[in-house]
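In keeping with the milestone schedule agreed at the kick-off meeting, the structural modelling team has produced records for the first pair of proteins. Each record is given below as a sequence line and a structure-token line. The laboratory manager (R.T.) confirmed that both were archived under the project's standard naming scheme.
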Amino acid sequence: MATHKYVYFFSAKNAEGDASKKQLLGGKGANLAEMAKIGVPVPAGFTISTEVCSYYYDNNNEYPKSLQDEINKNLEILEQETGKKFGDSQKPLLVSVRSGAAVSMPGMMDTVLNLGLNDVTIKGIIEQSGNERFAYDSYRRFIQMFGNVVLGMKHESFEHELETLKEEVKVKLDTDLDTNNLKELVKRYKSKVKNIVGVDFPQDPQEQLQKAIDAVFSSWMNPRANTYRRLNSISDKIGTAVNVQSMVFGNMGETSGTGVAFTRNPANGEKAFYGEFLMNAQGEDVVAGIRTPLSIEKLNDIMPHVYKELLSIAQKLENHYTDMQDLEFTIENKKLYLLQTRSGKRTGFASIRIAMEMYDEKLIDEKTAIMRIDPNALPSLLANIFDPAEKKIATKENKIIAHGLAAGPGAASGKIVFTTEKAVELAAKGEKVILLTSETSPEDISGMNSSQGILTTRGGMTSHAAVVARGMNKPCIVGCTAMEIDLSKGKVRFVKSDTEFVILSEFDEISIDGFTGEIINKDLKTIDSEIEQVFVTEEIALKDSTIAQHYDKLMAWANKYKKLMVRANADTGPDAKIARKHGAMGIGLCRTEHMFFEEERIMTMRRMILAVNDKERQMAIDELLPYQKDDFIEIFREMNGLPVTIRLLDPPLHEFLPHDEELIADMAFELNKSEVRIKNKIEDLKEFNPMLGHRGCRLAISFPEIPKMQVRAIMEAACELQKEGIEVFPEIMVPLVGHYKELEIQKDLIREVAELVMREKGITVKYSLGTMIEVPRAALTADKIAKHAEFFSFGTNDLTQLGAGFSRDDAGSFLPKYEELGIYDSNPFQVLDRDGIGELIKIAIDKGHQTNPNIKLGVCGEHGGDPQSVEFCHKIGLSYVSCSPYRIPVAILAAAQAAIREG
């Protein structure tokens, strides 16, 4: 009976795998086999498959019974191919043991080089190479790497011995150590192992190999690998392979070397060979910073024939894989070997340029170009960044004083302010400010709008601050628990450690990086996005910007292939204008409450809330009507001919009232009301859980005059624009419906007001009426609700809160641990929870279709701008997704990729 195959050999003579087997052999193993097959010089070896990794973790760190026999068999084949023998004293075979997952995870897992060296085999290495110094240099490297990776010793333990010895013999570089120095270093390293680990350094090559394989498989679950997978949405289940490969040596003197190179520039995408190398070195030396590497072009001066061969192989590999390649190579006595090729990591700018230019070069087609670009890279092309030179200096000067969650794109600098009022006041004087606060609420909208960026101590990635900031394309950092604000003293303290902190005052300069979550105690210069200057401000013509031309072509292709429509969450005319420029096909969420927070309107809103009778309340509402109408006219005009979904008033009334004593006093004076009466009203409106309180359709049922005013404003605006010849398609959305009767009551009210306005104006407006599905009960009874709705818009932010039982403002304190433990693969407020909230959505879709087969379906939560969530929306057949104006390109590209992937 044949046993399951776990080990696959690769060499120029016999390659058992190829590039199509990445899930089985990992990226490194599959590409080594592929390179061997197409004639690229690759040191022979074998790959232990990812299936072994899965088995290892599923069976309490045990291996399949047949694995050791397979390893021994492949080791024998490797010995035959190389003419060397593992553990032999005459012609010893040395190997490297490297990790290699199906998805590239650079530097996250462990590697051991020069394995097989011991006090006996080193004599054979000296005899074979004729280079005693090289042999002991390799031995000291092996002990250090094995001690660190396998035996768990700290890297610094060995570095201390190395630096001490260099001081004793008065040399600066490792390469200045002579043979006797290296012999002494090996002796000291062995002694260090004995002292720390309590055992002698292992001399049996078979034991060394088994322990190294164990270490590489164990490194799949090390903290940095887990963190990298979590940040990059890589599943723990795919596992790593282990590659055992015959060693080639770059540290055999000045005829040998090692390096890394890219077939194109990974920073800017330029079609130019790019990389670094060192002579007389092994791989880790290039990235460790011990010696300054040389630019790859200088290899042409040192070894022109090797450089020419490397260029030829690089071009061959790029043409073969039709993608920019990241190469690792070693030169052993003037002979070139490739140790790895993989698709190279690149910046957002580079990814677009490379994809577009490879299309022009006929290496790839449109669909492949679209699939090559990470949608999440696009915001970095649209937002300001810090001047790289200034950021580098600030980092060196230790000016980074705290970190939080990077919740809004871009970089910003300005004076610290602690209140919305101060932000508005200083911004009006032309000052740049950063708003620091414990958390934000809808009341802070004007302050947020006036600020360059927002920094909060509380909240997660979908807190109010994060959601609004992303909609404004403003840098935002939330959940900065190291920040302590003392409003009474006008001070803020950033705790760096138990003994170190930084205290700043209001109006001090500060910078925040919305890409990294860093808070910087310095005023840094920012650079505008070139694409933004072309498509939004139009300060640069399209013909004058190469990156903008590439971006324009990419988005045109994406729009051609996508099936989902992409709309914007926009509350103002300027937001709507930006949304159109970024490609929005309508507005999927217009939050009317944001319109009430402007300075000239908020007092009228407060007068309505504080009204003592219906007449007084109606007078205030009548004052609000023209404001609402003007806003809708501006939005409809910008969206000429495209649908606009308008959510009727959603938040509870207490959010429109101040809570600060000084602000209450100011309001009492302006409204000519008693402070005591105002405080009593605020107390009356206070709720233990506002999310579940008197808001949305509940508020509209209690105060029908509010939705009546809003519907009249919508319809009057629509009628007036249609008279001008501008097409308008309002979609009136009732929020927070949980019971069909709530919607039924609001539907009757909306229809009555809409018909009345159209009769008054003599105009017929094609409008629709629907609801936001954000309450689990609404999803479960969607068949009843659909009888009264022409569309459902899934408010996935609140549906996640209510469905999962998490507060999006408070869950940031524990959700990272949930992700770390694998309870959730990703933060459910960032990436839609398909198994839970996704099922609620599917239930609502199925039930809604039972009653109303033609019901329109969309998503308007933050998930509408997340690529994974967009793909889910495509799969379940939604009509559109809606997101912030600056996430529209992300959603468009993600929708195109979902359609291509499905096809």
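The second protein of the pair:
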Amino acid sequence: MPDSKNIDVLNRPWSAEADAVLSALGTDAGAGLSRGEIAKRRRKYGRNELRESRKKSAFQCLIDQFKSLVILLLAAAAVVSVALGHTVEGVAIAIAIVVNTAIGFVIELKAVRSMEALRKMSKVTARVRRDGEEKEIPSGELVVGDAVVLEGGDIVSADMRLIEANKLDADESALTGESVPVSKKTQVVESNTQPAERVNMAFKGTHVTRGSGVGIVTAVGLDTELGKISEMVEEAEQEATPLEKKLDRLANNLIWITLVITAAIAGTGIIRGKDVVLMIETGVALAVAAIPEGLPIVATVSLARGMMQMARKNALVNRLASVETLGSTGVIGADKTGTLTENRMTVSRLCLPGSDVEVEFEDGGSAARFRSDGEEVDPSQDRSLNRALSVGVLCNNASLGKREDESDASLGDPLEVALLTAGAAAGIFRDELMNEAPEEREVAFDSETGMMATYHREDGGSRVAVKGAPEAVIDSSDEIADEGGSERFSDERKREWKRRNDELAERGLRVLALAEKRVNDRDAPPYEDLVFLGLAGMIDPPAAGVKQSVEECRRAGIRVVMLTGDHPGTARHIAEQVALSAGGDYRVIRGADIADPSEKTDDRPTDMLETAIFARVTPRQKLDMIRAHQEAGHVVAMTGDGVNDAPALKKADIGIAMGRRGTQVAKEASDIVLKDDSFPTIATAIRQGRVIFRNIRKFVIYLLSGNSAEILAVGTSGLAGWPLPLLPLQILFLNFILDVFPALALGAGKGSPEIMKEPPRPKTEGIVTGRDWLLTAAYGVIIASVALGVMHGTSAWLNSGPKQAQTAAFLSLSFGRLWHVFNMRERGSPLLRNELTGNPHLWGAIALSASVLVAAVFAPGLSDVLNLVRPSRELWLVVLAAGFIPLICGQLLRLAGMVKD
């Protein structure tokens, strides 16, 4: 077992020689650990497992529906109503609660189960050496010190120090963000090296793409790099969405308003000597009037509708309130690989002795245009281009499979696949070349030489195709190709080509050099007397539509910030391709240079919060950057697909994972999963979120103005000693009809076409602003005045009885509230042709509500329960005319400039 002097070696095994790691762990690389030693180490280090996230039960989904303050307020009102003997009112409120709970429960449970359906659980095994034998065991049984045998295709099951690496490459993109497989070695690296550059380590959760090797397990379970990220995901507190906070704040305000108004009016009436029972009944009526019973139902349904619309557009929502949160997003933290890019290496430039050829792929990579100096080049007619592409196709171990389905059938190293794809786009196919020049021999890639070669029988001799690291190929070449054949490759020209290689690398391209020669003997050395053909620059290209989406986000006042573990040059190049910076500032900050967000420095706002590109960042640094932007007052969305993105996905106000390429951990940490892995879908979802918030604001103002009218009408009558214009059950009936159907129709509005040209809302802005409260009060005064005026006017001028006058007040307030819905149109929209008059759902809601209101006075059983009578013809004319007064006054307020979105 390791002792104290070995602590540094075990904490940083990448900075120690392989023999020192073996000694510190007491491991024999050939025989492995003994059975007794394995048991001891399992007791000390635990099993090689991560915490599994707990599935959300149906019961938990049900309980979550009762966490809203509005629901609690409604429940309290129901209890008070029953306690005061108003059982019917209490039951009616309870029905409203049940309806809202049922809708929210069904929608959220469906979302949770849809997310769980994305999870793919698989059993992973590992091949280890134990007791002198090689055996396969479940990965969970690995212990620190185990000797693990790795081969191409294996999933790495623990963190391990490599002691053997035979042409070993590992895909670490999910963990580090590195876009191409990393070539692994056994040499020591510096102790402060970031995980992405620890070439002598293999990490849990990555997989071997080719080669073989042996690694000694140095960490298992939560001690691995993957485990540390898992713990950060646990530590990253799930933020309540802005909408949840705003709805809670609104409900809290309504609680106090209800208590204050009810107590003030009832108390004042009792002090003035009015009947105590009457004032208690008045207080109950006011409490019922103050509570917007339809608010939770309409908010839930509106969000659910948005969720379903987003699902149709390939965005699967985990939490309902997340739909709106996107609408207030001010910063999008985007991972590069697989989010802004296609996660597919592509040849973008071929630097040839006589020309530079740009390669522009079309139709998903199945076709390409080759251009030189702005002119299109035909590869079949350009000898230099044809030779270079042919060598890239011949010296290759990858496979494109069926040509009509290349994207799905491509296998092998991404750089080799890129060369095959470029060749196929030029009409050069490996199977055809192999028929013409069969492969006789292969010299596999060797990290020592940095090159690979294949020998092909041709014209009685052999054609040797070579590709590899540019410096190695250039140094091994004696000649350079030209149009007539080849010429001497001087030292000066070699230096020039090395400079060109450096330029391509600085632009973020992965560069391979291509060369060939003719020999008579297939056993001739592969890397002597080569003819240099040129350089192939490859990059993971921007995904389709990303540039336009970034521009759309910029017009909407949203900053897109790249947070990637990839190379700075690659990050900068992709940022330039998608126009990430409006001002042309493509400065890159490396992870190692990021200031600690806990340090309040004067230059942090400009250095850290205004920079658009961060490269070589660790998961912890991604988490810190998200927190820094949140502390600056921004609503932050984070996109990603890798394990390394998970902590930031969870910490962000809205986490967005990729559904196709996304890892299990990333999906579970996210609020939204993009089924098409398309960044442009985010811009669509943001627009939907903005529309939803605007609609929520409209129906909240509509609900509150109607409820305030009821409060004013009942409260004024109670204080003045007049008959109540509305009874508690009538108020509840009105609220359930008019607070639900028209409000639902408002929530279904399509929104303004200009909504993505507006800046994001401030994070602190509530659903109802100070100006909105004033407007709500003004609407309430108008509607209440109409109801009271009708009640007293019909008594005085039409000699209506008390019940007829009360019925007239009920109907005039009802129709006034109903037509008042058209006061909710967008600012600047025409009176007759706007998003409301063009909303068929709204006209349907008006027709339904009006029908129910008419039924309330004509249906025998219902009119008796509501204590309503049939109005006379004259009374109907008064009621219908009075119903339009709030609409007319609302338009006058708009003309006066009081209405502002």
